[in-house]
Structures are given as C-alpha cells and as structure tokens.
Design goal:
The chain has one domain: eRF1 domain 2 (Nucleotidyltransferase, domain 5). It has 3 helices and 5 strands, in the order βββαβαβα. A hairpin with a 4-residue loop joins strand 2 and strand 3. Helix 1 packs across helix 2. The relative contact order is 0.20.
Amino acid sequence: MSSHHFHAVVWIDHHEARVFHFSPTDVERLVLHPDRPTKHIHHKANSIGSGHASEDHAFLQAVAQSIADAGAVLVTGPANAKTELVKHISQHDPGLMKIIVGVETVDHPSDGQLVAYARRYFKAEDRMLPQKG
C-alpha cells in the first residue's frame, strides 16, 4: 500500500485537500473532498456559524488521518482552512501536532509547484533542525 514517506504537504481549502507524501524521488498524491461541498454559498463576513460544522469535522478528520503516518508535515492553503485544520488536529488528535513543522499561505499552485515548494521548504527546515543522535 503506502510506502510511508517521511515528508508530507497538505494544501487545503473548503472544497478539497490535496495531500502529497514524498521523498526526493517519489510522490504519492491523495485528494480528499468534503462529503457535501458547500455549493458556493457566500456567507457574510463575521457571520457566526455557516451550518456545515459536522461535515467540516469529518473532512478535517480525514485529512488528519491521511498525514498520521508522516514524520514531518507542511500545511498550506490560500485562506483559513489551513488554520482550521491545525486547530482541529490540536483539539482532536494532539499527538499529531509534533509532526506539523509549518503552516504557510500558498495560493493555488499546481501539484508540481506545491511539491517543489514543499521540497524547498523541508530542505531549509531540515538544515535548521537539531541533529538527532
């Protein structure tokens, strides 16, 4: 099944999450969608509650599970879905917080651009991490 790559990157908005597990030479792609994506309902700014909390929960949970076997994860996306994902993980799966190494605003990259961005990010990040041993 999955070949357990150490690094993963998630790109998430309210319509989909693209998850890539990768090594320097290989990439595995997974796309997750909320069960019933909101059909372009525009909510007023600052309105309380948008009426789709339970499907968001299931969606965020599925994304969290998709990265659970990674060793280091970069969470990206254009808007607030990425922070909602991190908040969800901290509340429902706090053990996963240790693998999230960064949360970055990234607009709408192609798959190739996203993986290239994540590889560069991890290269810099890995140089900054204290060496274990």
